[in-house]
């Protein structure tokens, strides 16, 4: 087992952050989870609270943070379109000021630092599938821009700190990831469809449902995160992490209906502005440098996720709890 470290995870009570905290604790590290609970939930980390190596701090990354750590994972940011568009200026601040503060902390503590970047860097991509070398097609003034441009600026900051100050950075461009502990209220397609199907409500497909996404199960992603953080410092960054199996949103709806045995019908709603038409990661870099490929295919991952939401809904625990 590697030497135990004191590790900071921002956004640690969110969907991905909670799995990351768990994985790091399982390896014997001390984990400091920092979160403002904007979209995360205490429920996601309740099972970790009794671990003496786990500590939670309510803090907003738009404010500087003074702690002593050996390693930093910067995940703090709302991730679903309805959440990041609710207060777009705050979204920009979280991504830009949050990056500056965490990079400053990494500089002072001489910590390696990981950035949770996103496939939204590619916007509505004109190159398919998307390799890391593609610069993207992003609207600077649309409703998604607060998130896309906030994350793009964070990438710029990370690379400037690396070039000018020699920081040891790691950066994943994460493609749509799903699994247990997604919020039932955050409007992302997988949680929306499953909750709608389980309740027998209409499945809301935005547009014709011909737009595509590539869905990665959370366990695969976290395995990729851990490999990426431990990659040699000369490994090329950023790295796409996602499952290259591509589905239309209509195919996803049909699969959720089949797996839940739901009587739900399809209800078409307007397509949101700037909704990307297609998205699929080129993961050759992660495969070559990390030996990483996702193992869990959509049918299996959806079954685990459906079981989670069935349990949540049957206990009436689907209301937002901070
Ligand atoms: P999430 O909303 O479940 O988690 C985000 C966490 O960050 C929440 O706990 C939230 O309360 C916290 N947070 C937000 N603003 C904060 C602030 N100012 N200060 C402190 N904490 C703050 O989302 P997630 O899916 O777990 O995403 C985690 C990270 O991964 C995000 O940075 C997101 O942009 C990135 N990402 C996720 C996906 C995905 O498919 N899940 C895809 C691409 C990128
Ligand atoms: N979507 C949909 N119905 C929903 C929620 C989302 O058809 O109830 C579509 C959305 O328009 C997009 C895709 O599903 O084309 C993925 O949406 P999500 O918000 O999960 O992620 P993102 O757009 O950021 O990839």
From TrEMBL:
Lipid biosynthesis is among the record's keywords: no
Pfam families cross-referenced by the UniProt entry: Epimerase (PF01370)
Secretion signal span: none
Domain NAD-dependent epimerase/dehydratase: 7-242
Keywords of the record: Decarboxylase, Lyase, NAD
InterPro entries: Epimerase_deHydtase, NAD(P)-bd_dom_sf, UXS-like
Gene3D superfamilies, A to Z: NAD(P)-binding Rossmann-like Domain
Taxonomy, superkingdom: Bacteria
Cofactor: NAD(+)
Keyword hit for Transferase: no
PANTHER family: UDP-GLUCURONIC ACID DECARBOXYLASE 1, UDP-GLUCURONIC ACID DECARBOXYLASE-RELATED
Protein's name in the database: SDR family oxidoreductase
Species of provenance: Paracoccus aerius
